[in-house]
Amino acid sequence: MASALALAAVLAAPQAPAWSLEEAAKPYAGTEVNVVFLDRQGYNAIKAMLPEFEAATGIKMNITTMPYENALGEQVRDFVAGGDLDLALIDLVWIGNIAENGWVVPAEEFTSNPELADPELDMDDFFPLVLNAFGGWNGTIYGLPLDNYSGLMFYNRCMLEAAGFDRPPETWAELKDVYGPALTGDGKYAFALQSKRNETQSADSFARMLWPFGGSFLDANFRSNLNSPESQAGLQFRQDLMAYMPEGIVAYDHAETVNALAQGDVAMITEWSAFYSTLASPETSTLGDCLAIAPEPMDPAGRKPALGGFSLAVATQADEAERAASWLFIQWATSKANAETYLRQGGVPARKSVYQIPGIAEEFPFVNALVKSWQDGVPEFRPRFAEWPTITEIVQEYGTKMMLGEVSIEEGAREIGTRMEAVLEEAGYYSDEKPLAQ
What we know:
Elements lengths: L1 H11 L8 H5 L6 E7 L2 H17 L2 E7 L1 H14 L5 E5 L3 H6 L7 H4 L16 H8 E2 L2 E2 L2 E13 H6 L9 H12 L5 E4 L6 H12 L18 H13 L12 H9 L3 E7 L3 H5 L10 E5 L11 E8 L5 H14 L2 H9 L15 H4 L3 H10 L11 H17 L4 H18 L12
Parallel strand pairs: 1-2, 7-8
Antiparallel strand pairs: 3-10, 4-5, 6-8, 6-9, 6-10
Helix pairs in contact: 3-15, 10-11, 10-18, 18-19
């Protein structure tokens, strides 16, 4: 009887309401959150979904859209001046700079707060490679992955079949030696490698050719590895591959490269997964059923696809209400519940569960190659330390000079290495005081 009475008392006691976004946001209704976005499909997808968030929470999102090239500098100036940005948009290679300067709040401040933490957040549902590379630094998670990229091979199946191929190349060597000559001629080209002198040159062109051949920017002691036989082989391969690319390839950014495939001028490109919607849309592409997708090619060191993307983190300069409202937005934008909607709007979520939904892989043909790349990828595809924004400018300058033939592969690599080590030495990487953290 005593047990029955105790159970009745428990059942009669008021039960705590289940967590909901609406309830969690009530104290912050009317709060305005300022954030920088890029003019890319992943951000446009969030903008399309945004009215639902604002209606549910009463939180107002103020979004400033700008080109990638301006985004880091704009945010750094705001954080140094103690400005009004409440969220940090963090590229894979900006995380060291932003975290080491203390401009963002560790996510644990919010995930450990039951009033703000959605019980369905499920951090284990993020691909570990993506979560740690885009939002993590020195073992601490700061941001959650929002706009997520992996390098894939997009190709014109019809052009390959007309040339006698029933599959895309498995290796980079096969692409150059077999597919290159067969698909180049009469104003058409086998391949286009976006190589414009900006982050595209250092990430999408230069770095893409290091890893598959066993090369890297740095060795284990943070000294240049660019003159190693493996790195030299990759950079020389890129030079040789130019014979099967359009003239003026050093001026090609993402838009030009994607358009070259979309209009049937080139047969293959290696590009970010986020460009699938552009290539698949009849409004922006003539490919139609000829569009096909595969993992990036492999070579001696295996398949080492490009890795890139962004996370969103709460800025330390935000006040208490702005911090809470910012976290609620991040959590909502990257949630399991919204992942399928985000995917259908043109974004690429980093949630494992969304790609396990029956029919998704058939509806979105890039999924299988994407998942494989996030399982095989290299977290340090580009060095993520705080000095990368300075080093990338060196790589861009001499990487372009190599492609133009203004310096040899060996000379250019040596010059990059010398200047890169000077930057790292000034930052203290070769002293006992500087932790060689990643």
